[in-house]
Write the structure tokens for this entry.
Amino acid sequence: MKVKIDIILGFLGSGKTTLINSILNSNKLKDESIVIIQQEIGTVKIIDNQVIIVEKKSSESIDENIIKEVISKFAPDRIIIELNGMDNVNELINSSYLDKICKINKIITTIDMKKANIYFLNMSDKIREHILNSDIIFLNNSSTMNRKQVASIKRNIKGVNEIAKVYLFSTLKNQEKAFSKNKINIMEDTSDNNAFYIILSLCLVLLISMLFASAKGFINLGIGTSYLKEFNRIFMGIFIETIPFIIIGGFISAIIQIFISEDAIARIFPKNVFLSCIVASVIGIIFPICDCGTIPVARGFLKKGLPLSVAVTFMLAAPIVNPIAIISTMYAFADMKEVVVYRVALGMIIAITVGLIMSRYSAKDVVTENIINCQCELCSGEYANTKNIFKKIKGVFLLAGDEFITVGKYMILGAFFSSIMQVAMSQNIIDLTSENKIISLLIMMAFAFVFSVCSTSDAFIGKSFLNNFPIGSVMGFLVVGPMIDIKNTMMLLGSFKKTFVVKLLSCITIISFILLMVIYL
């Protein structure tokens, strides 16, 4: 059986030894023979006499040779390594020897909250290394900090390692109490349980599939099957149509952040709010991305310090002034060229108007995650400031991947809800046209929100509605669709506060409705 290894990371005084004592006192490991390797001796001592303590100098790195010696001499069930905060943990966990005879069970980082910001500023590479490799992170001594400061540090941590479990304690005494009351059990090996639940889940899926297949022979599932097929068709259509543009948008955002300096960005956009919104409304011509790709780019603008008004204007106008969207609209409405002019003009006017209204908000006040002040490896400037072109290219791919994962998960959720709503929508609603222009315009705007079609292909769908709706109402579909729909709303909720998203959507809807009604009444 492989020897379990737990690694405790953290700087001097962060509570590493206190954590080890708490683990030993909880009696969860009482049936195991344990060796503790201490590389950094602090003010607190190990108090358990049943464990073997091997002390090493801070200057002496703990490597596979030391672990091999410990295993040969003591034959323990578990080794707990209290690592020096400045030592290289990557060399230890990537050792090929350890893979053969040992198993890395848990990697835990302890952070003294009073010094956390100093670490992020002055020893950012080292603390990121700790956080990135950790399964569990203990934030100690938070009593002197307010909620905003704690939330900021948590965001920094999640920006580096989103899946690590984080425990917050106001004092080290509270941490000890939590262990003594068995509220925390961090040393449990859950891999076997996880494997069991995975196998059980697969068996359940197989069983349900078999029952479904058996029932199909006895029950007429014609209606249900048609709904499932329609849902699958719509969902896959949205997914396949959207993914390429999110990838393109992620790469454009990454290139802006890595290769374009703040000074260059400042020269592109004027300081005047109105003029900067005008520039933002036309700059989408050089970016061939649809609405689902603009959100990563807008995030990139905010990270570069551009005002919220510029990001919002670009986000709303870019899908409409996109050359591919313009060409597709020209083909779809070949006999109605004025539709192209109206669509682009109205889109730019609405985008600029909404952008100017949003200029009263500060980006820092409306983002949900730490988009602007993120201190993770990708956002800290490490790749942007280097002169090594290969490291910059590496940074572009890493950042594009990060943007894709961040935005993509909300796109999938939005596509799922959009597909359900489209399947549930009765044909009677589509046929429920009226001579009342207000109702028909509202219906088309609602369709634009629900259908979630990319701006590069929505013109052909809009053309098909001319059999039932007047051109003024169809313009609502063509203008509002690229700005707001279900999948975009979900993606926005992943980056901005709910209250801001509601205000933004309301503002777009009201301004679009008023402008379209004025023109087509």
Observations:
- Residues 192-218 form one domain.
